[in-house]
User: Which sequence fits this backbone?
């Protein structure tokens, strides 16, 4: 039926193949939902270094990658996690200590940059940010940009509207396209060729995937192609964009996966406590990340009781009545 | 009925929301205010999240705008691209009221949620814009939640994350932004509006037990207090709905 | 729950309210599928004049509107209908006789222009059309454009890529946004507030709707909001964009509506014969359009037998084995 | 086995399609060619429509790219925006081969599907670009179906709808287009390729019973015929699959 045979592989293999030191990466999800956490932890276990990461509000996953020392350059709109950590803690300390190069955008800027990448155009335009420091302050200098062919020459550009004031705009902000080397997303259902069905909000996953040279899909369930093809309009990412498909139940844990499980408030709260203290965080990594062989290892450590607690209610898609204080 | 400051702030914000408004919510108190408005004074307002959920049912309070709780029972679940387009859109954008929080606000309602100190080597780093800069750029009305402390109302922001009236009348238009801008700053002491002509913040109301001078003492810049009145405290009905229906488990309040 | 009470109305009322002489209009669907034909015929019956129509490949619907004399200005990518009429016949004759002002684009140009309108930006960019007459030849003169505030000053603009050759592009084509006064789409399911679920391909309906000041939704079925809200991710147009909801079974007839009915090859073939001859076409209009009171009137004229023939197979969504010669 | 010219043309096009190709199809013979390739020589090619359907099952031949028959059993159904983005996309665009028809083609493979005569007052008006200009602008390889008639191979097009090599080597790049361009022109008499250096059309093969001179007689401009060979007619297997599996009801062929 298509050329996508042989995409199903282990997570270890997928990360080893497509996530290389220094590569440009983005991950799916938003704050505490559908982060590809199993893949994030595997990247940390494989001690990947110097990743250039593109994030809108990719919360927990990005914070852990920073904590694990995997990221050296970060383009980001929001380093926060909702209530668990209004400002992501390892993100905050890495910036305050000058450990990573970073550059700020808004969520729409980043979404549009992925959209431009997926569309195959060099930039896209918006009115967002005119008059703000987001446009003024560049985290990557002109010199660095000129040296690195994988960075656009400019953070942004403002141009006058060539169509007069058509659309009520006198000028627009142009944000440059992003085309990551690899994007990793976690979805509820995929087939072995990589066609994905995302349930609930898709965040920016679709454009992130389509903008990327390689896409690793981790999924709760690998389903038969015929099942997905009964409702093709609900499959947001066709297989032609996907390089690897990995079956990882609880692959978003400890973030949520709509209709499957909720975020784990206990794990996240604990993590935010650990993250605030370098020594505790190091111990946390040794135990929960490096100390386990793989994601099932982490889940065993967490325990069935805790997983049962966050299991999603069929009606609502989350763990109704979950104690989240 | 007794009430907490958080409850007062929530109700003051809720009262600013009108039927037909599409309310852009963040997490925490802004979400509770939007939910309260819908239950109390603006049943035909629509709650909407930057993650792409429109008119979510919100049977439980979400802890983040990506919480699965915003997905359940919504009219539509899409993504960031669609959500921000709804705000930039000429037909729907004008109906949206944004609710934002911030680390700093200046007299023109510009917001800093990025850092304290130098951008490149900050003393304190915050989360950054998220969708705040986008909302502030696009929509015609914005409510801003703040704690009233001197350092949070500085003469000059350390970083301008989200545009208010920039440097005064006509500045948004000169910069190329849509008209509109912040409507009210709602703090733990009172509510400030913006003057139609000067675009400067002025004190509109102070909470029972607070004096205008208390408020001036907690800001780096001075604001006009001549128009200030004492705010109407939450009614019993407002409080009852807030406590029983909006946040019964006291997750936020 | 929301402010959208009172959107449900008759087709006659919806067209009378939102489609005014001289207004800028777009219709949904593509060639022979999901054209809002009931609305098109009602526009013709109400003798609307001087419409400015934006079309990508809106096939049968646009051709009938031209045939009915409703359109005076047309921006279009494709005036064709597939096999029934490779070039739409009334479109062709109207242009050859100089009866309408027209301007050509590509399908992507038009899709992007609706996308820009929906996004609230003055233009969007692409690499399509560089070096072609589509960019060179303007159907609307600079003078007309300067006079009419509802037209952008320029058909298109080409600019150098401000980001060097980022994204592999040295220059890009900018196409101006479209924000119609009204867009009419036909969908399988909508609720009374206007939230829509489109089954099968959505074509450009979503952006067309979101770009418009007013949207008229005609639908096969008005369903309970609760039903649509069980799977919010499959509702492509939320009610906030919609002005009117009209229940019109067979509202796309004689074009197809996936999962409901196929196009009617007999009607379309007959129509293409009629359309080629002014006298026959006039008789056709008198009988099938002006001669009936409303869409049910047309369906009665067509007859149950013919409708039964095109009824969709549950498995495939079209009329399996339909004689289409 | 006997075969018709339409069958010959279909098979000549099908043979140009390779495993892994994503095939952009129009209606009519181009769709049949893509379906034939998938059944005969490129089972791992993917058929794809500008309306947004990817890898459609095509149990029946669609009569238009918006026919519900392209929606059934596809891997994904989206819309025009997504379909054209797939072509412009740097990662997927290079894997796409377009199949186009046209009213006129010039020696550089530029196409006219808009009009004969003056654009504003045409003698004959055609359908216009549709997605043809987009495909021709974006993708690395294109097949063009033509009827071999003098007026259809003019020295100068009445209107340039879809870019081929424009006015010769380097012209696409100078105009700002992606490299790539037309690969083959498949007519009722033979198949033409484009010279790697001059980008001009040349005769690659002529069908059994046709001479190169016949072909020259049916074009306004001359092409190099020195490289031409006689084309291999459809094999029995190819014909059998075409007739029995691809178009059993002779809707197109």
Assistant:
């Amino acid at each position: 039926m298509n050329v996508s045979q042989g995409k199903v592989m282990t997570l270890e293999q997928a990360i080893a193949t497509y996530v290389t030191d220094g590569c440009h990466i983005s991950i799916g999800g938003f704050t505490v939902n559908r982060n590809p956490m199993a893949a994030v932890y595997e990247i940390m276990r494989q001690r990947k270094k110097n990743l250039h990461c593109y994030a809108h509000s990719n919360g927990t996953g990005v914070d852990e990658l920073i904590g694990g020392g995997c990221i050296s350059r970060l383009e980001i709109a929001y380093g926060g996690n909702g209530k668990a950590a209004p400002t992501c803690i390892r993100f905050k300390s890495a910036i305050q200590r000058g450990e990573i190069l970073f550059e700020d955008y808004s969520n729409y800027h980043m979404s549009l940059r992925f959209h431009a990448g997926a569309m195959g155009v060099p930039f896209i335009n918006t009115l967002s940010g005119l008059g703000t420091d987001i446009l003024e302050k560049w985290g990557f200098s002109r010199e660095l940009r000129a040296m690195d062919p994988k960075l656009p020459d400019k953070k942004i550009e403002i141009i006058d509207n060539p169509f007069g004031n058509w659309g009520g705009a006198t000028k627009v902000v142009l944000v440059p396209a992003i085309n990551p080397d690899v994007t990793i997303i976690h979805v509820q259902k995929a087939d072995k060729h990589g066609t994905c069905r995302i349930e609930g909000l898709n965040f920016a996953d679709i454009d992130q995937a389509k903008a990327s040279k390689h896409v690793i899909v981790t999924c709760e369930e690998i389903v038969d192609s015929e099942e997905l093809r009964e409702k093709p309009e609900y499959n947001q990412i066709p297989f032609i964009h996907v390089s690897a498909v990995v079956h990882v139940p609880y692959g978003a844990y400890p973030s949520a996966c709509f209709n499957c499980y909720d975020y784990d408030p206990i794990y996240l709260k604990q993590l935010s406590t650990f993250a605030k203290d370098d020594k505790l965080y190091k111990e946390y990594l040794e135990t929960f990340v490096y100390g386990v062989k793989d994601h099932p290892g982490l889940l065993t450590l967490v325990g069935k009781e805790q997983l049962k607690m966050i299991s999603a209610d069929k009606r609502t898609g989350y763990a109704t009545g979950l104690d989240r204080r | 009925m007794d009430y907490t400051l958080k409850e007062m702030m929530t109700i003051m914000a809720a009262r600013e929301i009108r039927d037909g408004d599409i309310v852009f919510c963040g997490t925490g108190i802004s979400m509770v205010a939007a939910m309260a408005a819908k239950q109390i004074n603006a049943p035909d307002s629509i709650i909407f999240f930057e993650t792409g959920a429109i008119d979510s049912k919100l049977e439980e309070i979400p802890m983040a705008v990506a919480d699965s709780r915003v997905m359940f029972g919504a009219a539509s679940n899409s993504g960031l691209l669609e959500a921000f387009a709804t705000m930039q859109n000429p037909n729907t954008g004008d109906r949206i009221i944004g609710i934002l929080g911030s680390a700093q606000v200046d007299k023109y309602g510009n917001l800093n949620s990025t850092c304290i100190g130098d951008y490149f080597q900050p003393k304190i780093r915050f989360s950054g814009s998220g969708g705040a800069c986008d909302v502030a750029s696009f929509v015609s009305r914005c409510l801003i939640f703040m704690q009233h402390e001197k350092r949070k109302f500085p003469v000059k922001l350390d970083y301008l994350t989200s545009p208010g009236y920039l440097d005064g009348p006509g500045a948004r238009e000169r910069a190329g932004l849509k008209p509109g801008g912040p409507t009210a700053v709602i703090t733990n002491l009172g509510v400030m509006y913006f003057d139609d002509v000067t675009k400067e913040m002025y004190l509109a109301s102070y909470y029972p037990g607070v004096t205008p001078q208390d408020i001036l003492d907690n800001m780096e810049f001075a604001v006009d207090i001549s128009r200030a009145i004492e705010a109407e405290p939450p009614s019993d009905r407002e409080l009852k709905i807030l406590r029983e229906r909006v946040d019964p488990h006291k997750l936020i309040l």
